[in-house]
Amino acid sequence: QLSFKTLFFNPFDNLVCILLGISFTVWFTLLLVFIIVPAIFGVSFGIRRLYMKTLLKLFEWATLRIERGAKENNHLLYKPYSNAIIAKEPTSLEEEIKEIRRSGSNRDLNSAPEFEMSDIFYFARRGVASIMDDEVTKRFSAEELESWNLLTRSNNNFHYISLRLTVLWGLGLLIRYSFLLPLRVTLAFTGVGLLVFLTCVIGLLPNGRLKNFLSQKVHLMCYRICVRALTAIITYHDSENKPKNGGICVANHTSPIDVIILASDGCYAMVGQIHGGLMGVIQRSMVKACPHIWFERSEVKDRHLVAKRLSDHVEDKSKLPILIFPEGTCINNTSVMMFKKGSFEIGATVYPVAIKYDPRFGDAFWNSSKFGMVNYLLRMMSSWAIVCSVWYLPPMSREEGEDACQFANRVKAAIARQGGLVDLLWDGGLKRGKVKDTFKEEQQKLYSKMLVALPLLKPIAHR
Amino acid sequence: MGSRASTLLRDEEIEEIKKETGFSHSQITRLYSRFTSLDKGENGTLSREDFQRIPELAINPLGDRIINAFFPEGEDQVNFRGFMRTLAHFRPIEDNEKSKNAAVSEPLNSRTNKLMFAFRLYDLDRDDKISRDELLQVLRMMVGVNISDDQLGSIADRTIQEADTNGDNSISFNEFIKVLEKVDVEQKMSIRFLH
Questions:
Q1: At A315, phi and psi to the nearest 5?
Q2: Pick from A103, A141, A452: which is nearest to B147 by CB?
Q3: Alpha-carbon Rg of chain B, whole angstroms?
Q4: How far apart are the two ends of chain B, measured CA to CA in Å?
């Protein structure tokens, strides 16, 4: 019963209660009919796509308006360029230093290698160029956009606007926070709640085909509700390559939402560390219905244990394919960083998946150093929509004579190519950690070869 | 949310930096965005740690020397003006600048100033001379453990011998300029902007 009956003591009171009752009923019916029921059966009314098209038109108008406004006021616009700002020379250390020496000397270049004072120019220029713009640090913060999507958080030109634009932005704010956000939060709670409840119920059944069947249906349904809770508009490509039992599905990682996106289209066994709190509750109930691979915090460090559990799982063909994100951390969806080779050593078939978000509707990247999980989810749920494309790539296996590292790089290159992302060799761990000394030592070795002939180089002790 | 990169940099400041360094308006705002993204402490200045967080710089054998070039004597923080002043050394020399009036003070990206930047990478104690020890130390940074002390020593000796004209067993800035007079400094010590 509504508790504000005790707070208000006038006849108006009854009317308020009745109105509230009616609006809640209407609200939930609409929710059920348009969102939850389609989610259960996996069909769609196409409402979200229509919404997306409308938004795009709106954003184009908003961007043009800003540019026009800026021109009228003679302000210079800040134009973000997510591509490079400086020209990077793709030449090697050897080539560049030879070029520098050639330009300064009359001597025949094929004579014995020796030191020139101008050699330092190479290191100076490379160093300062990396200060102006480097390939790694920009992957750990949100991509900058050229068009404006009516979210203040993504635009630097915000103060160059007209009245109409401000009104539109204000309207957008109102819609997003007072209509979309509550709607989505309701759906999210529904989805998660159903997941926990139903998986616990299914867990009571004896192991067998019925249990597996029901578990898959329940997982799919709840993830689909969560997809609608984020207003995620996902386009799946090449579904004939969807991962099969006994395989490992690898994908590039941008945010925790990746899991929801993939798991609403197929059934996977999740891998991860057991958390406390709500996350832990969800994990523990999920594993009752079907075998997921959760590790205790202490077990995560033990690579052999991890590898053993993974390979035991893939050998059992009745178990679902494993879903893994080999980058190990969230990257901002402009590039793919180094894949950890653990999952590639097991010898199972790898099903690569490329996920590319469309940043115009809302940036999905989770900058964990800036936002906590709850803050991040709230931002996601108050964006316009999450639009992304998923490509299922053909399965790959390790070839003869290829080691795990090379295999991992091959898969990574395929994912980068399909998703239109930059393929980087750098480790995503550089988000938080320092780069290894071996890279500097490589540079020093390369340079040393230009100073003294090879036989005179001191041998390095092998690690 | 709230104020971001270019809104914190006032137009007057941009004009001043433009006059001092020669960078264009868009280049300055772009580099300001870069400066703020490196400034993890969000206090408007960069420390040495902020630079060392750039992986490509951390693996550069002379990374620490280059970082040092940004910090004036005895200071641990560099603000945006200082940052731009140092970066200006690597701006390409445009043709219309070559014929500039000699009365105007030398631009930061002149050939001499570019050479001065390189000279200061060698001159560890900033006494305007590159001594044999300093040359050895810098060489050691560049080659790591791959070359023996003796060989490095003879390389250093040979270099000083060729460059030193006044017999003080060290290389002054003028001697440095003389040794590199044929090198295409303008091109090799310049970084080209894409727009």
A1: -70, -25
A2: A452
A3: 19
A4: 28
Q: Containing H/E element for A353? A: strand A350-358
From chain B residues 91-110, the ones with a CB under 8 A of any chain A CB are: none
Q: Do A444 and B144 touch (CB under 8 A)?
A: yes
Quick check: A80 and A145 in contact, CB under 8 A?
yes
Answer yes or no: are the C-beta atoms of A252 and A215 closer than 8 Å: no
Sorted by sequence, the CB contacts under 8 Å of residue B57 that are 6+ apart come out as: A127, A130, A131, A134, B51, B63, B66, B67
Percent of chain A as helix, strand, coil, to the nearest 5: 55, 10, 35
CA A48 – CA A38 distance, rounded (Å): 13
**Cα–Cα nearest to A269, from A201, A316, A204, A301:** A316
In B23-52, the residues whose Cβ lies within 8 Å of chain A are 25-27, 29-31, 33-34, 37-38, 51
CB atoms within 10 A of CB A33: 11
User: Dihedral sign, CA of A403, A406, A409, A410?
Assistant: negative
Q: Which residues contact residue A198 at a Cβ distance below 8 angstroms, ignoring those fewer than 6 apart?
A: A218, A222, A289
C-alpha span between A222 and A106 (Å, rounded): 74
ipTM at complex level: 0.91
pLDDT tens for each residue of B117-165 = 999 999 988 899 999 999 999 999 999 888 889 989 999 998 898 888 8
Q: Does A130 touch chain B (CB under 8 A)?
A: yes
For the cut 50, the answer to whether the pLDDT of residue B7 exceeds it is no
Provide the token pair at A348: 């199972």
In total, the C-beta contacts within 8 angstroms joining chain A to chain B are: 193
Q: Is residue A432's pLDDT more than 90?
A: no
Tokens of B47: 């420390």
Residue of B nearest to A427 (CA): B55
**% residues pLDDT > 90 (chain A):** 13
Using the predicted structure, report yes or no on whether residue A351 has a pLDDT greater than 90.
yes
Chain A contact for B88 (CB, 8 A cutoff): no
pLDDT tens string A99-143: 888 777 655 555 556 788 888 999 999 999 999 988 888 888 777
Tokens 């007079």 identify what position? Answer: B181
Q: Which among A253, A257, A270 has a CA at the least distance from the CA of A321? A: A270
Pick from A235, A223, A433, A426: which is nearest to A327 by CA?
A426
Amino acid type, A332? N
List, as own/partner pairs, every contact residues A41-46 make where C-beta atoms lie below 8 angstroms and the sequence separation is at least 24, other chains included.
A42/A220, A42/A224
Please give the DSSP secondary-structure letter assigned to residue A429.
G
Q: How many CB atoms lie within 10 A of CB B168?
A: 12
- Per-residue tokens: B54: 């750039």
DSSP letters spanning A363-382: -----TTT--HHHHHHHHHT
Q: The pTM is what?
A: 0.75
Give the distance from residue A389's alpha carbon to the nearest chain B alpha carbon, in angstroms.
27
Which residues, 6+ apart, have CB-to-CB distance to A297 below 8 Å? Answer: A273, A274
Distance of residue A97 Cα from the nearest chain B Cα, in angstroms: 10
